[in-house]
Design brief:
Layout (H helix, E strand, L loop, with lengths): L1 E10 L6 E7 L4 E6 L2 H11 L9 H11 L3 E11 L2 E10 L2 E7 L1 H11 L3 E3 L1 H7 L1 E2 L7 H12 L10
Length: 160
């Protein structure tokens, strides 16, 4: 497993579907994950510091976990199965840790709310991540290059 962070949210130029872009903490590997528009909005709102008058679904879930004296330890993207990324949310309770099956989009929306680390299995990174040869410091440059990549890519391209 490698720790990653949310680098940004963009849109697939062909299908106009949102994509969350994860970046490895060390190195220049980027993992695109196609997500739903509701989850993209939830992630972007939190990343941009937008407050809502009432809790959104992921805010509610984070509050419930806290009220139950549990802690979200991490979220992990564990595999790519039949063109679908699989994730788990790891909770720590008094009795130990448990893992809960999740869509990556929901796990990521939850992780940004509680500052939980995000991990991705090495096999997923090897099979689905994009790597840039040079150091990437300019977010706009990465997003532009990523948009160029998205002009021709489909989710099936990651199935191999």
């Amino acid at each position: 497993m490698q720790e990653m962070s949310i680098y940004g949210v963009s849109f697939d130029m062909v299908g106009k579907q949102p994509i969350v872009l994860l970046k490895t903490q060390s190195g220049n590997k980027f993992l695109p994950i196609w997500i739903g528009s509701n989850e993209a909005t939830a992630i972007l709102m939190k990343l941009q510091g937008v407050e809502t008058p009432r809790p959104m679904t992921h805010d509610l879930l984070a509050a419930m976990v806290q009220q139950l004296n549990a802690e979200i330890v991490r979220v992990s993207v564990t595999e790519l199965r039949e063109n679908t990324f699989i994730a788990v949310i790891t909770l720590r309770l008094d009795s130990g840790e448990i893992e809960i099956d999740s869509r990556p989009s929901d796990a990521l929306a939850l992780a940004v709310r509680v500052d939980a680390p995000i991990f991705v299995d090495d096999i997923v990174i090897e099979g689905s991540a994009l790597e840039f040869d040079e150091d990437v410091d300019d977010t706009d440059d990465v997003v532009e290059r990523f948009k160029e990549f998205l002009d021709d890519v489909t989710p099936d391209d990651f199935a191999s």
